[in-house]
């Protein structure tokens, strides 16, 4: 095997009862390798690309205590250790001042986050896995779902093992799951993101745990059966703030704030959002403070959302997901995604 860029722990004992102490002992991005009954094949799970999304590493720590013996070599990456350990622990998406690691998997690989992303890419090509599953937490509370970059029966079969919904996105943001589209050496490898639910939701850790257990137990990925009732949504749009627009989350409109979203807007991450669903209040800028991009860079806000007496509503039925109540994520990333129906 060629040399790896990142450190490797092979079949490690878990010496720390506390997951924070365990991550501190890792100290940096680390591959954790479990020998399999058949080490000629390899499967990869990545976690903690965002330091404030700990369910994957919490589930991994708990699962390793059981000393599992997978069917194939199973390789787990605990990625953004530095961000996770920035005080307060598990609250920083990225190292302060650094780029979002999960936006750095396309050239140029600038800065420390870019260098780490490039190291992950090079190591993945060495591992040559059968599949890669990237574990995340949603930025607000909500059900688990999977995300893929294309309609692919292999990805749909994988997604159906863990979630009831698959989002097929045509946004290209530089995320890890896009690597088969940009790295010829990984073009054969199905890569899927599993959003396990909110970081504080106990069930999110259970979803993450199911990924480790099932990927370890399956004899052959080609034997997986499609889930006929998997809900597949395509072509999501990103609703964002316009530059310089202020935002708050509250139960009443905030004076001097351009957009005040309902304090529990993340409740709409479940089910159908109808045209009479109140989403928040708009200040003097009105709808001009928002935009709704599709993957072709078109702002489709006017056909999707509307203002009625200073309040924000959908124009038609839609599915919302990844709606956050975190002001920093709203400013730096997006307010929510939606798929019109």
Automatic annotation (TrEMBL):
InterPro entries: AstE_AspA_cat. Gene3D superfamilies: Zn peptidases (3.40.630.10). GO terms for molecular function: hydrolase activity, acting on ester bonds; metal ion binding. It comes from the Bacteria. Residues 48-155 form the Succinylglutamate desuccinylase/Aspartoacylase catalytic domain. This is Succinylglutamate desuccinylase. Its cofactor is Zn(2+). Keywords: Hydrolase, Metal-binding, Zinc.
């Amino acid at each position: 095997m060629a040399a790896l860029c990142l450190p490797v722990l092979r079949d490690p004992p878990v010496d720390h009862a506390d997951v924070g102490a365990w991550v501190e002992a890792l100290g940096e991005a680390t591959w954790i390798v479990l020998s399999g009954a058949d080490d000629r094949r390899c499967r990869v799970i990545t976690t903690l690309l965002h330091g404030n999304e700990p369910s994957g590493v919490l589930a991994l720590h708990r699962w390793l205590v059981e000393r599992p013996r997978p069917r194939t070599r199973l390789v787990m990456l605990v990625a953004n250790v530095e961000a996770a350990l920035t005080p307060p622990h598990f609250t920083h998406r990225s190292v302060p001042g650094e780029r979002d690691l999960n936006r750095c998997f396309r050239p140029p690989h600038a800065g420390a986050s870019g260098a780490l992303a490039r190291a992950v890419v090079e190591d993945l090509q060495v591992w040559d896995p059968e599949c890669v599953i990237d574990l995340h937490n949603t930025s607000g509370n909500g059900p688990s779902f999977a995300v893929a970059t294309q309609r692919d029966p292999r990805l749909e079969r994988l997604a159906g093992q863990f979630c009831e919904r698959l989002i097929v996105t045509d946004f290209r943001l530089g995320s890890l799951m896009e690597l088969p589209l940009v790295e010829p050496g990984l073009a054969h490898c199905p890569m899927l993101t599993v959003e396990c639910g909110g970081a504080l939701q106990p069930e999110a850790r259970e979803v993450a745990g199911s990924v480790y257990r099932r990927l370890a137990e399956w004899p052959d990925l080609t034997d997986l059966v499609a889930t006929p009732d998997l809900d597949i949504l395509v072509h999501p749009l990103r609703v964002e703030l316009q530059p310089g627009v202020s935002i708050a989350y509250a139960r009443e409109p905030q004076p001097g704030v351009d957009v005040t979203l309902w304090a529990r807007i993340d409740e709409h991450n479940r089910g159908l959002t109808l045209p009479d669903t109140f989403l928040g209040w708009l200040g003097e800028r009105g709808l001009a403070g928002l935009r709704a991009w599709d993957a072709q860079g078109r702002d489709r806000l006017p056909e999707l959302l509307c203002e009625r007496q200073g309040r924000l509503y959908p124009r038609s039925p839609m599915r919302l997901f990844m709606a956050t109540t975190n002001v920093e994520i709203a400013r730096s990333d997006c307010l929510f995604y939606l798929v019109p129906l």
